[in-house]
Amino acid sequence: MQKYEPNSKTRKNAHIGSIEDYKKLYEHSINNPEDFWAEQAERITWFKKWDKIWEWDFNKANITWFEGAKLNACYNCVDRHVDAGYGAKTALIWEGNNPDETRNYNYNELLEKVQLTANALKNLGVGKGDRVCIYMQMIPELAIAVLACARIGAVHSVVFGAFAPDSLEARINDSECKVLITQDTGVRGTKNDIPMKSNADIAVKKTPSIENILVVKRTGSPIEMVEGRDVWWHNALASSDAECAPEEMDAEDPLFILYTSGSTGKPKGVMHTTGGYMVYTSTTHHYIFDYHPDEIYWCTADIGWITGHSYIIYGPMANRAVTMMFEGVPNYPDFGRFWEIIEKHKVNKFYTAPTALRALMKEGDKWPNKYNLDSLKILGTVGEPIKEPEWLWYHNIIGKEKCPIVDTWWQTETGGILITPLPGVTTTKPGSATLPFFGIIPELLDDEGNVLEGNEVEGNLAMQRPWPGMMRTVYGDHQRFFETYFEKFPGKYFSGDGCKRDEDGYYWITGRVDDVIIVSGHNLGTAEIEGSIGGHPSVAEAAVVGYPHEIKGNSIYAFVTLRTGHEITEDTRTEIIKRVRADIGPHASPEKIQFTEGLPKTRSGKIMRRILRNIASDNIDDLGDISTLADPSVVSSLVDERI
Ligand code: WTA
User: Fold this and answer.
1) Quick one: CATH architecture of 520-640?
2) N vs C: which end of the chain shows fewer Cβ within 10 Å?
3) Cα 417 to averaged position of ligand 1 atoms, centre (Å)
């Protein structure tokens, strides 16, 4: 396989420009972790320094960083840049869904809006420690709302704007949010009236904790406003005081909750705290995107996911980056939109998902070739394995062979990037996330938990030690935190991913080894989808697995058994799909549904998903051992009737 070295220009300007320097700093970070993280923590402005760098016990799932320190995340992202004289510099560039819509905020303007919003929240009775749910599309007020929460010490819980009312309701109830922030309707691609407020209205019928809904006017479409409960954002800001001092937070005070799918039907409220998260996101953003002042940095993720939290808002803004957010989609008004935006704003650092690259690559080179992409210096990917074809396309057609690609591996739980190339350092191989970031010790374990030493091994990916940005608990359920990440391999953090280490010690993520399926970069729990399908009155049982998909990476395949006496009709199929869309959201709907008389089960009644995965992926020559099945005969009809 061909390897790609960083070019000399990137090396020369990089914060770290040689593999020797990387190794030196990596060794320092491993041998003297307390010194290393104390040095990196200087990026952050602290109201009071820490008493202790770290304390941890993975056997109890207890982790603290910078205990005793005081800081405010919003102050670090906004105020201190104004104080340092950069108030007139651009902080946020917003590119709307329609190409003629752009809004820029400099740091002065951002500070003004964030303070007004913070006071508006206070006027609604929101205080330190209260949870605020944010359910919006990618409009600037979303970033402002997040920062305003951080300013007053309220814990934000952003729910991705495509989630259905039921999912929104479950997330609001789990963390008992006091206020919900949303918008009238949303605009995305050819959709110009995405029901946000009306979805919120359905959700809050069953969320007793919500006292008020704050509503941003994005489209002006008619919506219902409930007197006494619903407040227009612009009215609330108009009657707010201009000044709002940032709350002094403890390093270990919660900053946000973000829900992610798990192996049960109930989503996990991943909780991140303030000090360690700010140090980790700013440090990783600095080195991995090799950020230099005034560069235009664009991460195309949605703020509804962790990538948007860490690498649109907190990391870049702490580093005084010019950060962009985009309301639209890569194929509207046409397949050239990303490249048009890069030309228009002279984007230097571009961070996107493999699924977007695959979809765009399919449309041919004519789209990127229409635009001047000379401003680009570094390209990044995240969310799922990138395969060689799209990596090469990214490298050749988008980066014109001069931009290092950073394939960054991390998770909602990790808060920031753990395994990644550094642009001025790492010789890359298409498809490999390469080497650990500073302070990170990845381990590959066999199923019994033995550490696989040396190179050319494959196993379960775990981390030997904590890092400042890792999650601290599952909101309201510390036992679940322990069971999910620390129980299977005692003393380690288990990621749920499989991984191999090649002859050069490079890491290659092979995909999830648990019940999570990644579809177009979105994590989906099989149990959640099965629960939704199982809610259909005709359905007796359902099992959901992933199978490889050209554009989405994986797609969803559902095996469904109907109740006796219920007939398979086209309507049943449509109703099941509708149901999943309504319960979870369109991103979770099954691409294929196979009705079957029975599912492959062990004698103890456990569904053998391995067999279903093989059938769904068309690997029928090697289904694996089926002798432990209660009724091996179901397999042949499953194979024969596969779609
Ligand atoms: C997958 C997204 C291969 C992985 C930041 C992980 C990746 C899950 C990569 C987390 C990558 C993320 N290569 N796989 N570079 N990055 N993944 O929580 O399976 O939405 O466990 O966080 O995405 O997804 P999440």
Assistant:
1) 2-Layer Sandwich (3.30)
2) N
3) 10
